[in-house]
Amino acid sequence: MRTDLKTLLLGASIGIALFLGYSFRPSPVPAAYTYRQFSTIESVVPGGLGRSRVITSDQSDQMVEKDLLNFYSMTGINFKNVANNDRLIVETINQYVTEGWELHTVSTGVNSASEGSGSTGIFITRYLFRKPL
To answer: Is residue 23 part of a domain?
Structure first.
């Protein structure tokens, strides 16, 4: 009888210890981040007349622009310009990653309108980065 009582008390003690250990542990604290973003605006205007840019803010919140080449030239889509823009965008992403930023979200949008016989439009892409505080 005495052994059964000891076993029962030992089991109850372990159960209470496990319950208290899991019941009172602190909730996980979500990670805190700081964010930084840059945007690309790529013009889709026939004849190469549009303006395309990479727009970002520096550490003092001053706007910084880098020129991108237009998708279109006088003869149509200029694939060399598209490749050049891709290279510049990837270089910008790599610069952020080297500085410790993680690419968190990429969002895109298109705006187009017809004007007379031609069309105009832009592709905008936003690259959101984050870094733990």
So the answer is: no
pLDDT digits (tens, 9 = 90+) for 4-45: 777 777 777 777 766 666 666 677 778 899 999 999 998 877
pLDDT digits (tens, 9 = 90+) for 71-93: 877 787 889 989 999 999 999 99
What ranges make up the beta strands (E) of 12-96?
Answer: 33-43, 52-57, 63-68, 72-73, 76-77
Residue 19 lies in a domain: no
Rg (CA), the chain: 29
pTM assigned to the model: 0.71
Domain count, the chain: 1
State the residue range of the domain holding 51. Answer: 33-132
